[in-house]
Design brief:
Layout (H helix, E strand, L loop, with lengths): L1 E5 L5 H14 L2 E6 L11 E5 L6 H9 L5 E3 L3 H9 L3 E3 L5 E2 L4 H16 L12 H18 L3
Parallel strand pairs: 1-2, 1-4, 2-3, 4-5
Antiparallel strand pairs: 5-6
Helix pairs in contact: 1-5, 3-4
């Protein structure tokens, strides 16, 4: 199993949680972004810089992800694509995307995008909070406990 991080917009505190988990459980973890990223020295953590462009990092993750891998992303279309490939998707606020909830998330995202394109102010997501960090850590721990036993 690999952990893939859609790293362009991933909060630093979430990356730190993932770095600690990668070291503790010796899981290969890959950050993908269109800018140069610093990673701690580790044989389990690496960063890949992809060319700038719309969804280039997402496309790279979808090409590389394997069934059973975990992708950390807030990008709902990316989450849907990796679920189709048999991988798991977790957002930085601690919500697992699943076959049962991804269609609803995509519909809501598309609806809000239509509103914004017609000039309606929809606001953005709430600021990343301590509760979000705790929810992410707890969900990640439960996921890794179930999927790294073998």
């Amino acid at each position: 199993m690999h952990i893939w991080i859609d790293a362009d917009a991933c909060p630093g505190v979430v990356k730190e949680i993932l770095f600690r988990a990668a070291e503790r459980l010796q899981i290969n973890t890959v950050l993908v972004a269109n800018r140069l990223l610093r990673t701690p020295p580790s044989r389990f953590i690496r960063a890949i810089q992809v060319p700038a462009g719309f969804d280039v990092a997402d496309a790279h993750i979808v090409e590389q992800v394997a069934s059973g891998d975990l992708v950390v992303t807030a990008d709902i279309p990316l989450a849907a694509a990796v679920l189709e490939r048999g991988a798991h998707a977790l957002n930085p606020r601690g919500e697992m995307y699943t076959a049962a909830n991804i269609a609803e998330r995509l519909s809501m995202r598309n609806f809000l995008e239509e509103l914004r394109s017609s000039g309606v102010q929809t606001g953005g997501p709430a600021a990343f909070s301590h509760a979000d960090r705790q929810a992410f850590g707890a969900t990640l721990d439960r996921f890794l406990a179930r999927h790294t036993r073998a």
